Every structure is written in structure tokens, then in C-alpha cells.
């Protein structure tokens, strides 16, 4: 089905185009009407005419009577109020559409780079935003029909592995595996670091081990794979706890690009893009300067002939476009890396690896802060582990369910506690505009009131409760939507807005736009439920209101699922 917005926009665009071909009607949801077209102002400026006169002329070309009433307002805006018959027809189609009006897009291949933990280190709160935002974007793109290739670019290569492998050898494989298998990756790393700091002999062995690793020594590579595999098992457990779609097959670490780095240097050299600077090979993309106004280098190969992040990112980009055929590349990485990615993209375009029709975006995000508005840390000053964070949230959710005296078995309560906990954590992150920092406050996140995950989940559970109590005494077939009460119409208009919320979230890589829509819808439903009795209403009003409850429940469940949040049937 064509969305309400799409139908209105098509009619308006035709009327605007009659005056200036391709003119944008700038259609928006409005506080003053159901929708408002603001494009008259720009059109009048192009034509050099009075905006209200232009608006009146647009009306003369506008064939929209079956959809909405239109009035000229203010200096030249067009206010549109949808006709009740049109809204009712749209609702009827929603009731029969499992996609709730969200159309499939023209398919394209999208590579999304997200999460990116380090081998032999535990995932901490610093990995949360990349993981959660990236997973939501992957779900959204898949839903509209794009082929998503997830890339978990883990840190599994480099000089620290000499130290880690030597510590594994000193412990013995059995003891090392026993430690790593319980997820104590940080403990293993700290022990290796301590040995490195106190022993010159250990440092020398570590240095030689790095040389052996990079040289392809078979035994060293076998020991390295033990560290990598144990870390992968741990990462998978964390993703399962968080309800994230990343799998082992999505992991393509830094090591995977090791053999491609020489080709990157050769290609850039052949293109005349590399310059030797202080012994290193650097690219100097146009437009990037330091504080002194001097050209800023992107170091591709270091003076010791080793490679850094820039070379690996260039190799990954080259492979994702050249071999995977990506039409779009999204990098869900913190805001401090903005300049790095801008330079990588610029060098890749200069090298001819990126055609103009390949879209690259650094999906930047802000930081998670503690109550002191500084980077969230434990009292000891270390990073907060993701598993511990989720465990604490789950325990608090369990306590809240006990206080609410929800009629749940112990098994149901334990399961629901985890669903609420991860929903609360994800919602707090995703409902924040991603470029902004936010304060991590579990008490607020787990509240059943306000703009929180539990509030949305409870709204869905309440809708399902109403439908269960109706039992089989109603049918959604052939429901006539009269929408007599203002709260009914307001809820109906909200239900028609899902396609635009999804499109906006995808187009701007901003999941918070879908969150804003869902929270608004839940509030509309609350207002409807308070103003309009459902089960006690006479027929046929009862069936109409039950149908509104059902479409609302389906919309919340679908919207939350696109964010990676479950919608419980009972709470």
C-alpha cells in the first residue's frame, strides 16, 4: 500500500511541478493541521511573486479532494486535513498489511561496520553505542529490502599479540584455556601486561613472537588462533545477551586485510598519492590541514614499514567496494574518528576505489557519561563491562517486577527481566540523537513511565491484554472506522506515520527518529485509552476500538523489533 505521506506528496508535487518542474512541496507533519506544505515560499521566490497568490494558483492545479481538505494559511503555507473516509480506508489497509504500510525499497548492497571489540579484551560500555546503533541500522535496512553485509572489524592483529601469545605459552594451554573460557579476558590481558612490564626477557620474547606472527610461523599462528577463538566465543555470548544479530560469520578482523596492505601501498604509489615524510609513506588528501595550516598526512605505511589503522581501513574499503560490490558503506564509529574517516574516504576517491555513486558515511556517535557527566567508569576508574551492566539492569528489572506483583512464574519473571533490561539499555541509547552524549542512569532507564524502553514495552503489553480480554467475541474483518472521537482520530493519524518514521531513520542513519515516533504513538494510545472505553463500548464502536488496539500493538511490536527491542505480551 502507498503510505499516506507518499500519496499526498505525489499529488502536491504534480501541482507544484505545473508551475516549476521539479519543485519540492516540502510536505511536513504539522501542529497546525495534519500536514503542511511549506514549499510555496521557495516557489514564490523562484517566480518572483506573492506567496499567497502562488499558493492559490497551486490549489488550482491540485487534485486532492478525495484525500484531504486544503487551505492557504499564513504567508502562503498549504494546510491539509485528511478526510475521515481516506483515513478509514488507510486504516483498513493497515489492518491487512503485515508490513504496516512500509514499502520495500529498491534493493542495494549495504556494508555496515559496527561493534569492533578487541581480541583478548572484554567488551565494555565503550562498545555499547556502536553495537546497538549498528544493529538497529542493519535491522532497518534489511526490513526495507536491502542486502546487508555486517562487518565486525575486531582488533585481532598487531604488536600486543606477541605479549599475549608468550603469556599463553608461560601459563600452558590448559590453564590459559581455563581462564579464557570463563570470559576473564581482561584478567588474562592484565597478567600478560604485568609480565611485559617487569621482565626484559619477556619483552624480548614478545618482540620475537610478533615477528614470527607476522612472518606466518605455523606454531605462532596456531597459538594466536586459540586467543582469537576464545574471544569470539565470549563476544558471541555478549551479543546473545544483548539480543544483537552479529554472528561469528560477520567477524572480519584486522588480520583478514593483512595480505592486502602491500597492494594498497602499491596502488596509491602508482597513482602518485604517496609521499615520503619522516621515513613514512603518507597521503595528503586535499583540504586537510593542521592548526598551522600545513597539509595533514594520512600515514599509510610507518617508518618501520609496519601499517596502521589507515592502511587497514583503506584495504577494507577497497575490498568492500571492489569484491563485495557495496553500494553503500556505513561505519558506526565514535565521533572522535570523524577526521580519520573523512581522510580515508578522500584518499579512496582520489585512488579511484570509490565511484561517485558509492555512498560512504561515518555514522558518528557521542559518549556515554556517568552522573558526574564524565566518561562512565567504575569507582576504581576502569571501564564498565557490558555483561556487568546488563546483569545489574536485569537484577533491577527483576526487583521492579516483584514490586509490581505481576502474576508471573519465577521462570517467566527471570526471562522478562532480561527482556526489560536490554530493552531499557537499548532504548536509552537509540532514543538519543546519536551525535549527542548522554548520561547513563539505570534508575531512569528502567522506569515504567516517561520516554523509556519499559514504558513502550508496557504499552504493548497493555494493548495485548485488552485484546486477550476481548477473547473471540470480536473480529477485525470488515471493521468500519468512524473515528468520531478526537482521540480515535489522533491515534489513527499516528498509526499512519510508521513508513515515514522508518524512511527518516534510514535516510539520516538516525534510529532516534523511529524512537520519537514510537514514543509519540504510545502517548497517543494512552490518551485514546483514557478517553475511549474499549471493552465496555457498544457495538460496532467496540470492534472499531479493538481494531485500533490491534493495529497499535502490531505497530509498536514491529517498530521495537526494528530497534532490536522485544515487545512482551505480558508485563
Average pLDDT over all residues: 93
CATH topology of the domain at 109-155 and 255-362: Rossmann fold
Helical residue percent?
40-55%
Instruction: Report the principal-axis shape.
Output: globular
CATH architecture of the domain at 109-155 and 255-362: 3-Layer(aba) Sandwich
Structural class computed from helices and strand pairing: alpha/beta
Provide the β-strand percentage band: 5-15%
Uncertain segments are: none
Structure description:
The protein is of the alpha/beta class. It contains 21 helices and 13 strands. The strands form four sheets. Strands 1-2-4-3 form a four-stranded antiparallel β-sheet. It has a four-stranded parallel β-sheet with strand order 6-5-10-11, sandwiched between helices. Strands 7-8-9 form a three-stranded antiparallel β-sheet. β5, α5 (128-143) and β6 form a beta-alpha-beta unit. The mean pLDDT is 93.
Amino acid at each position: 500500500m502507498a503510505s499516506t505521506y507518499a500519496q499526498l506528496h505525489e499529488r502536491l508535487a504534480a501541482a507544484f511541478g505545473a508551475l516549476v518542474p521539479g519543485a519540492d512541496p516540502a510536505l511536513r507533519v504539522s501542529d497546525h493541521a495534519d500536514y503542511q506544505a511549506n514549499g510555496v515560499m521557495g516557489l514564490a521566490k523562484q517566480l518572483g511573486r506573492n506567496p499567497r497568490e502562488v499558493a492559490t494558483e497551486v490549489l488550482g492545479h491540485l487534485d486532492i479532494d478525495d484525500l484531504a481538505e486544503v487551505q492557504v494559511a499564513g504567508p502562503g503555507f498549504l494546510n491539509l486535513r485528511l478526510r475521515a473516509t481516506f483515513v478509514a480506508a488507510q486504516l483498513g489497509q493497515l489492518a491487512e498489511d503485515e508490513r504496516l504500510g512500509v514499502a520495500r525499497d529498491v534493493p542495494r548492497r549495504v556494508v555496515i561496520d559496527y561493534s569492533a571489540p578487541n581480541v583478548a579484551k572484554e567488551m565494555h560500555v565503550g562498545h555499547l553505542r556502536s553495537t546497538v546503533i549498528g544493529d538497529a541500522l542493519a535491522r532497518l535496512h534489511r526490513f526495507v529490502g536491502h542486502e546487508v553485509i555486517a562487518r565486525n572489524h575486531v582488533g585481532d592483529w598487531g604488536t600486543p599479540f606477541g605479549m599475549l601469545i608468550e603469556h599463553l605459552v608461560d601459563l600452558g594451554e590448559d590453564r590459559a584455556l581455563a581462564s579464557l573460557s570463563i570470559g576473564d579476558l581482561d584478567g588474562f590481558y592484565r597478567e600478560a601486561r604485568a609480565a611485559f612490564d617487569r621482565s626484559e626477557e619477556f619483552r624480548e620474547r614478545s618482540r620475537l613472537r610478533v615477528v614470527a606472527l607476522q612472518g606466518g610461523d605455523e606454531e605462532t599462528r596456531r597459538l594466536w588462533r586459540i586467543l582469537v577463538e576464545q574471544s569470539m566465543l565470549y563476544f558471541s555470548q555478549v551479543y546473545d545477551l544483548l539480543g544483537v544479530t552479529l554472528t561469528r560469520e560477520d567477524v572480519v578482523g584486522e588480520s583478514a586485510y593483512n595480505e592486502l596492505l602491500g597492494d594498497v601501498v602499491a596502488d596509491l604509489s602508482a597513482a602518485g598519492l604517496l609521499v615520503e615524510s619522516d621515513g613514512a609513506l603518507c597521503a595528503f588528501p586535499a583540504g586537510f590541514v593542521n592548526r598551522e595550516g600545513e597539509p595533514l598526512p594520512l600515514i599509510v605505511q610507518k617508518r618501520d614499514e609496519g601499517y596502521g589503522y589507515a592502511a587497514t581501513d583503506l584495504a577494507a574499503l577497497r575490498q568492500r567496494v571492489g569484491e563485495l560490490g557495496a553500494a553503500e558503506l556505513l561505519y558506526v564509529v565514535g565521533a572522535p574518528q570523524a577526521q580519520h574517516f573523512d581522510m580515508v574516504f578522500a584518499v579512496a576517491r582520489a585512488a579511484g576505489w570509490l565511484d561517485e555513486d558509492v555512498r560512504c558515511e561515518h555514522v558518528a556517535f557521542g559518549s556515554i557519561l556517568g552522573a558526574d557527566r564524565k566518561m562512565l567508569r567504575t569507582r576504581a576508574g576502569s571501564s564498565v563491562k557490558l555483561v556487568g551492566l546488563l546483569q545489574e539492569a536485569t537484577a533491577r528489572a527483576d526487583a521492579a517486577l516483584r514490586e509490581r506483583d505481576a502474576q508471573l512464574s519465577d521462570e517467566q519473571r527471570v526471562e522478562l527481566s532480561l527482556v526489560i533490561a536490554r530493552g531499557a539499555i537499548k532504548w536509552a541509547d537509540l532514543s538519543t540523537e546519536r551525535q549527542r552524549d548522554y548520561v547513563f542512569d539505570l534508575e531512569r532507564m528502567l522506569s515504567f513511565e516517561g520516554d523509556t524502553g519499559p514504558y513502550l514495552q508496557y504499552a504493548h503489553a497493555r494493548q495485548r491484554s485488552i485484546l486477550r480480554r476481548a477473547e473471540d467475541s470480536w473480529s477485525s474483518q470488515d471493521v468500519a472506522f468512524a473515528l468520531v472521537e478526537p482521540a480515535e482520530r489522533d491515534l489513527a493519524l499516528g498509526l499512519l506515520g510508521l513508513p515515514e518514521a522508518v524512511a527518516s531513520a534510514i535516510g539520516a542513519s538516525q534510529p532516534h527518529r523511529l524512537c520519537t515516533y514510537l514514543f509519540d504513538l504510545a502517548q497517543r494510545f494512552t490518551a485514546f485509552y483514557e478517553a475511549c472505553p474499549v471493552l465496555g463500548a457498544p457495538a460496532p464502536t467496540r470492534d472499531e476500538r479493538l481494531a485500533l488496539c490491534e493495529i497499535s500493538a502490531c505497530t509498536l511490536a514491529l517498530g521495537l523489533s526494528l530497534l532490536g527491542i522485544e515487545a512482551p505480551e505480558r508485563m
